[in-house]
Amino acid sequence: MAEANVLQSLSEVEDSRYVIGSPGVGYYVDWPRKGALLTGGSFIGRMKILNSYYDIRLPADIYGRVVVDEDRDFALPVAYGEELFRLNPDKSFDESGQKAAVESGPEAIDTSGGGFVVSAFTTGIFYAKPSPDSPPFVTEGQEIEKGKALGLIEVMKTFNHIIFHGTGNSDTGRIKKIFVKDAQEVKPGQPLFLID
Q: How far is the CA of 166 from the CAs of 23, 59, 69, 72, in angstroms?
C-alpha cells in the first residue's frame, strides 16, 4: 500500500552491489551519508518534482552500506532511473575491507560483533514507547517477526514507525542490543538496534 508523497526507489544488482535508481525526474536532496547502514523501507532522501516534495524509500528487500563515489551539491538533478548511490550488502565491512564501527555522535558504536543493524532513516527524536505510560515496543532479548514496530522517530510532530523488515536471511530475529535511549535525538544511518 503506497503512502501519500512517498516514492519507492528503483534497484538493480551490478558487481554484487545494489544500484539505487531515481523513481522520477527532479532534484534529489537529503541523501544518506557515505557508509550509512540502510534496511528495506529506509528513508533515503527526498525528491522535488514539479514543486512537490516526495520522500524516497528503499524497496523492502534491499539493504546495505551506502557507497557514494563523489562529493555532491545540495540538490542533485536526476533523470528517471539515474543512479542515486550504491549499497554494499555486506554491512560488516567498510569500503577499505576493514571491520566497520559506525560513527554516531561523540562516541563510535561498534556494530562489528555480528548481527543485523537497524538504522535511523531520518533525523528526529527516537521514542522506545508508543506513549509515556506504555511499555516499550521491544526489549533486549525479545524475539521479533517481520512487520514488528521497534520504535518511533518523531519529525516535526509526525511519528514514523521503525518497522522490522527481516534481516535479508530471515523474517524473524532477536533484539541483541538497543543502542539508543528513549527521547534521544538520532541522525540518518545511526544504528538503533542490533538483531540476531
A: 24, 12, 28, 32
